[in-house]
Amino acid sequence: MTAKQVANFIAKKYFTSTQYKEFKFNNSLEMENDASEIISLLKEEFTISEQEMDNYLDEIRTTRPMPKTELLMFLTEELAKQGLEWGTREELFKILCPTQSWVKFEDSWHQWITQYTEDIRNKIILTAIQNSLGFENIFWKLPEIKQKEMIPHIVVKFIESREKKEEKSESEFVLLKPIEKDITQEQKQMIEKIKEHIQDKKIVEKELYKNIKWFSKKAENQYFLLEVLPILYENSFYAFLNKHLFPAMLYNHRDNFYIKMKEVNTLINIDDSSYEEIYSLLDSITPKSEIQKIDILTMKVSTFRKFKFKGANMAKDELFDILTESIKYYNHIYQNTKPYNYYPAINLAYMLKLYGEIIPDSQRFKEYDIEKIYQSVKESIAQDKKGSKDAKFYATMSDFEFCLLLQKKDFTSKIEEGLERLQPSKFLIERPLFQMIWFVNLLEEFSKQPNDKLIESYYKAIDIFERHLYLL
């Protein structure tokens, strides 16, 4: 959402159209340039609390679409994240509006792509963009929360489609390619049944094995596999995914960055998987953007850390060695991201906090300041809070976890509010939950003088996450 959108939305709660015009005139304000100031004056004029403000923002996200130029910005950012490259605005225009004249729309495109204006009224351009990216006209009108949820899927399909077209244009053997068929009505019914009973593992597994024929490595099953994958993944059906779904995917799908990352996470959550297996899979992924590179490197370190901590009866010296190595690697990734990225940073902060709590007298790593690290990644946290549903969750939770590590007061209540607002899947909730349980267990096992306040705040947070997990 934009400041102009927020200002207009709040103003309608308190003013008629005429009163709003008078309010702006009396305060010498113009919407184009003074939207943020209008919001501040409205908050002051009507004593709008932070909670009321958050409620208004949530109402906008769930009931109003993004302004079209803001939506265009999110689409182009996602294209860049997925590794699509362009050099100039003209090149981007030709990707999104291939049938239109650059000379005719050059000035307008500059205003749209820089969000100088908020709306795109030209129906020819809107139609060109939606035809190029392959979404329906209704997408422009969906609520912001739904638009952001759909953007990654739209972009991934668009890039895969572009790659297929490039392959077709280059290949003389296109007719030999196996035909991938749409999902059948019978498959759709099965997917709906799984969704309906997703909380009952026995019913879901019975349904999956009853239709095991669709989990075979055939072109005709691929669209079905792509549809059922996120449902099983978000609800932690790791054993079935590893044994049946991933092996059934053809290479052109299985080699996709996001599918490979899901396969990595699946292996991490299976007890008998090996470090070598997970590392080699991560090593086989070719990142198409800087963000993807950061994700892969950070997961390599986290996988190393997880398997090193897996052994029972760990000696204290061994713990220090693992923490030292983890700090070194996480810091290397963190220091080489600009702007600083919160994903390696929050993992670095956990390692530093553990080391400092378990060996409070040590001078090692004293040059690191978790508060400074937190401040340095606020930009990347803020950016992902505007992104897809998953990105928004990870950014929000990392924000919360930094505050827990820094022992900021009365912060656990904000975790509750965040989970209520984001409504994450089981898979997403388990990520920070498992990290927090692991952190507290090590503190209690190895600290000579445990930090009771820190541990207590973590137990409160863990309780909140477990209650939300139970309610799913």
User: What string, H for helix and E for strand, traces the elements in order?
Assistant: HHHHHHHHHHHHHHHHHHHHHHHHH
Q: What does the average pLDDT come to?
A: 86
> What general form does the structure show?
globular
What's the Cα radius of gyration? 25 Å
Number of strand segments = 0
As residue ranges, the low-confidence spans are none
Report the major sheet: none
Main structural class: mainly alpha
* End-to-end gap: 29 Å
Question: What is the domain tally?
Answer: 4
- The total count of helices amounts to 25
- Share of helix among residues? over 70%
Query: Assembly type of the shown chains?
Result: single chain
* Residues in β-strands, percent: under 5%
